[in-house]
Specification:
Elements: E1 2-3, H1 5-10, H2 17-25, H3 33-37, H4 45-55, H5 59-62, E2 63-64
Antiparallel strand pairs: 1-2
Length: 105
């Protein structure tokens, strides 16, 4: 995921990080400058609610998916991730949640 807070704020005419921090603080959210401009490892859902309310945007504008960066298990890091196909992976076996086996097919 790519964190897109600064661009979302800029699209609304909020150019200074300190201005955005003041606006968020007015709604009870104290956010660090690093979390605003960097790519945070985690963010609380309640914080996302506040940010979306202040900016008037959706989560999809703040978090940009980057599935091309996901590596498959056992893949070498020097090779790019291959496009996944249903026929390319191991067969999927459904399992019951209670741990019991399924009846024979």
């Amino acid at each position: 995921m790519k964190w897109n807070l600064r661009l979302a704020a800029a699209n609304r005419g909020i150019w200074k990080a300190s201005e955005l921090q003041r606006m968020l603080a007015g709604h009870g959210l104290a956010i660090s400058a690093g979390k605003m401009s960097g790519n945070p490892a985690s963010i609380k859902l309640s914080d996302l609610d506040v940010i979306c309310a202040v900016l008037g945007c959706g989560v999809g504008e703040l978090l940009i998916p980057q599935p091309e960066l996901v590596k498959r298990a056992g893949e070498r890091p020097d090779r790019p991730a291959a496009a996944s196909s249903p026929a390319g992976g191991p067969p999927v076996t459904p399992r019951r949640r209670d741990g019991r086996s399924l009846p024979p097919a």
